Amino acid sequence: MNKRLTKIYFDPYLFFSLFTLSVFGLFFLYSASNADIPIVLKQSVYIILGFVLMILVSQADPDLFRRTSLMFMILSLLLLGITFLFGPEINGAKRWVRIGSFSFQSSELLKLALPIFLANFLFDKRLPIQPREIVITLVIICISFFLVARQPDLGTAVIVALSGLFVLFLSGLSWSFIGGAFITLIICSPLIWNVLLEPFQQQRVATFFNPGSDPFGAGWNIIQSKIAIGSGGIFGKGFGEGSQTQLNFLPETKTDFIFSVIGEEFGFLGVMLLLSLYFFILTRCLYLALNARDRFCRLVIGGLTLTFAANLIINLCMVVGLLPVVGMPLPFISKGGSSLISLFFAFGIITSMGTHKKFLPQ
Amino acid sequence: MIFEERQVEKNNFSSRAIFLFVLAGVSFLAVLFQVFALQVSSYTSYELAALNNKNYAVPIQPLRGEIFDRKGRPIVRNEPTFDLITQPDLIDQPELFLKLIKPVIYLSEIEEAQYLKKFKEKAFVNKELVLKKNLTAEEIARFNVRSFNFKDAFIDKRHRRISEYPHIFSHVLGYTSRSDNQYDLSMNIPRSHWADAELTYANGLIQGKTGLEETYNKHLIGTHGTRVYEINSRGRLVKTLESHPPEKGLDLHTHLDIEAQMSAAKALGDRKGAVVAIDLKSGGINVLYSAPNYSINKLSNGMSVEEFQDLIQDPDKPFFNRALQGRYPPASTIKPVIGMFGLTNKLINWREEIDDPGFFTLPENGRIYRGWKKGGHNDVNLKKALMVSSNTYFFKLAYQSDIKDLASYFSLFGFGNKVCRDCYDEDAAFVPSPEWKYKNFNVPWFTGDTVNIGVGQGYLVATPMQLVNYISIVANKGNLPLPSVVQIEEKNLELKENQQISLSNEDWTKMHDALTAVIESDFGTARSIRNLKNFQVAGKSGTAELVSLDSKEAYLEVRDTELLRDHSIIIAFGPMPNPQYAVSVVIENGESGGAVAGPVAIEVLKSLLNE
Question: Which residues of chain A neighbour B6 with C-beta distances below 8 Å?
Fold first, then answer.
């Protein structure tokens, strides 16, 4: 017992790569915010808090998360409901919940709660998963998706849904079912377009396919982002020297389009370095998942990691013009406390699940 | 069993996790590929796009070249003035600004209203807006003392195009004016940025509109400089990135002579007319004067609408350049060329005499063509005919001539052609032809038409420029460099050798003698100007009839209407026997050629010869 108490659950690879990423992120944010020191300081505080949280969370035994998963899920849905009913409306969307002086995006919590909840639901089911379990899982995913989508926050809703679907997929959903669902999705896509998407979201998709059609309106973001990245060249324009960033031609530099800032100021080499770092983190998470102590841990690590990856890839594809513009921050780099705290929380859970080994019978 | 199932589950998880991991890897590669496409493959176009976003280049106006007379004295120069310039970027409330500055700088209500109007219509990067031009020394001093109160305004040097002789040179020099579409598109500065040009002239981007200012605009204008600003996404200036100073335009060194031009203006007085003088050696135009005229200083630097309207509506047409565009019947001044035509075509010789009874009877129909002197000049040969200006002699000679041959002979002397190398908007005037007459009047060419041309009346018209060009060719015995206002290097002088004027040197000398006799002999028609000078002058005067009248009595009746009075013309060259200058003078409604236009020509020649 003594021995167990003194052990620190810690994954050095994950820890140091995240640390490097966060520190780089502060530099990028400094440049992206036109050297706005208060913003950078605030972000540093969140990062420090995040690391503390991550280390604390990773000490908890995976069983704790499993046992509290239902509570966690209910709490998340409750907060989402409160947000929907009482949250302040900012730019036509209700995404924030305020507790005291601290406000955060309630959907961030759901990104964590849903995969853990589903992992707990599915980890002890026999393979292949039965239709009844699939239906229950899908219903839960759909409820979560709609709750977030109606805020409206399509980007996060998609991520939330993906976080559930990843767990479902990893837990052994049959390929024939996946194929069938995919075909159904394509058939239903006009319905999704008309019923689910708000006009501004439809506009974004339309703009994506033809950004030149409205160069000063909706297409502006994509065009300016491409100009910023493209003009960075191989070596970049240098730290704080990106004209697109510093002269405000690039929109949302501190949040969604911070990758364009990196592309402009650090060039192709900077982008490669950043992507390598992200890729290393993903690889490490895959390693942890494959070597986790049980199915629950595997599913949770897999679900959370893939949610992180989806978030990352959607942001990257969006800013380089491969996907329509959806509000999606670049993990660990974009400005934003909720996102950071939730990410560190997730990686705390991943570390916990990946480092706690089963006590083999002596 | 449990272990086995766990192993199956684990394998299933592993394959699916790796599958998704590979999917993520592929996505990473797609992103990397796209970034490569943007940053490496299309780098140059995106780099340009980024530069176009932030770089805002504006032209800097150069100083125009100045214009000098043949002695190197400036005729038009750039005069600096001090203007009060404001920076609208820094002014939030223009009304308040005006209220504050009014005690310092006098502003009329119109100036205030114009300023507010322009303030609202400000250009994209509106760095400056001129509030008041041409400040007085007192205003400058007052402003300088209080300048710390006006960080949004400053006094700067701007130029004006100024001539010391704004009226007498107005037609030859022309004027400049602001031009809204004057872009140098070779400069790679977008058209819209020209509205933000950095100005050197108080009147903005100026361009030559008439005269030398127009003809030589490309030489005078100089090379625009550039200043490249960095702007942010809202179009606000951030800083200056680079600047290249403008280059002043080339100066024009002309053949014009200030004193000669002044003497022409003085001699003409307030009469309407034109004076043109040519340096026979170079073909340089020393005098190009038309009256009435206008002030190029006012026109170039801002004239009120009322003043401009007055000029346009003036019945004397001050904008009309009589020297280059006035079409006048050459009258008796045509007689030398008719005579030379007769010599060239062996229709006459210097000895042969005819009887001049004071009129010529057209054999076909008996129509009478009268001379100016009742009773005629008795026996006249070519020299006497020129000297006493016998109409009968030239009626008869013209009668013997073919109009087509005569017309082509005229063109050898520049009639019907533009004759000046660099004059603005020169008129080619007119040499008639039978085809032209038939086309326009639907009647054939009559012999009588040719007879009239023999004394320079009828359809033939010429400009004062053509008249002086013609008499210069005569003075130079057939050769004359293309007349030009601006000095051209000697090697570039095109000597116009008129080989078709097949006259022997003897003929030319006799012609010079005859024309000298017009002025210098006791019987010459222009002998009244003989004593105005102490060098010999050759020439021929003429009186262009505006109405065709058969008797002197009839003319005395129409004479009461000034605008119907005859035009007075003289063409002259001197000093004889080695002429250096030729001059033509036309005085509208001046009557008797020799006595009226003659003294003007003499004054100009004297001035050119420094006498």
Answer: 295
Q: What is the DSSP letter of A341?
A: H
- A-B CB pairs within 8 A amount to 137
pLDDT in tens, B27-71: 999 999 999 999 999 999 999 999 888 888 889 999 999 999 999
- Nearest CA of chain B to the CA of A75: how many Å? 29
Q: Tell me the shortest Cα–Cα distance from B427 to chain A, in angstroms.
A: 53
Q: Which two tokens stand for residue B320?
A: 């009309």
| Closest chain B residue by Cα to residue A316 | B31
Please state, in angstroms and rounded to a whole number, the distance separating the CA atoms of residues A305 and A298: 10
- Determine, for residues B40 and A320 on separate chains, whether the beta-carbon distance falls below 8 Å: no
The pairing of beta strand B536-544 with beta strand B567-576: antiparallel
CA distance B350 to B393: 12
A175 touching B, CB under 8 A?
Answer: no
- Adjacent-strand bridge partners of B60: B198, B225
Q: DSSP assignment, residue B177?
A: E
C-alpha dist (Å) from residue B447 to A7, A221, B439: 132, 85, 17
C-beta of residue B159 within 8 angstroms of C-beta of residue B193: no
Chain A residues 68-87 with CB within 8 Å of chain B = none
Packing angle between helix B2-36 and helix A295-319, nearest 10 degrees? 10
B13 in contact with chain A, both atoms CB, cutoff 8 A:
yes
What would the pLDDT profile of B104-150 be if each residue is shown by its tens digit? 888 888 888 888 877 776 544 556 677 887 888 888 888 888 888 88
A247 touches chain B (CB under 8 A): yes
The pTM score is 0.73
SS3 state of residue B242: strand
The number of residues in chain A equals 362
**Token couple for B535:** 């060098």
Q: Which domains does chain B have, with CATH numbers?
A: 57-253 (3.90.1310.10), 258-608 (3.40.710.10)
